[in-house]
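Sat 14:20. Reprocessing the chain from the morning session after the first attempt stalled halfway. Input below, unchanged.
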Amino acid sequence: MLHKIANLSFNFGIIVMFVPNKVLICTRPLTLSGKMLKRTFLSQFNPLSQVSRVKNHSERRLVPYSMQEFYDVVADVGKYRHFVPWCADCTVISRKEDGDGAGLEARMEVGFGPFKEQYISSVRLDPPNAVTVKAVNSSILKLLETEWKFSPAKRSTTSCWISFNINFQFHSPLYEHASELFLQQQVGQMVKAFEERCATLYGKRDNR
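Finished this time. Tokens:
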């Protein structure tokens, strides 16, 4: 239908449609004059000409589980598909232990809003103090790195402080615009999801 409206003058908005294996960008006329085209396609908004930004989310909280208990849940990457918000599947494909500490690699299958993606995650383990997870070869995400740190709570052996930090950046601003709201919502639920997993495994507790 584009050839039928090529001789019309209009201000337009952008519609992004997602179909299997495709992303379609079209215009929607807002006002028509029936004359000649005044604005070229995507002249007012071209996401491919912009630079995707690095996003960050951090939080720190006291949880009613020990360092070891919370560490064990975060380090058990193969179980992420059962409770991590955007993880559809995860399979550990290798484990290693060298002079830099223990680690593993896992194949992740995730969903970012309308996009589905598979990539390899490199995981560094420092029991029971820290877990770092990095996406290695994602075609959608230029950067995805999460870091968990655990520290003891004062006067309690059944609680600990957790620090969670995630940095992410899309390869294309098109992916960013389409998935930003979804991913930000899911990122905000990450710590809660792991705390609920602890409650499932160890029982629900209150901070003391």
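The chain has two domains: 2-45, 56-202.
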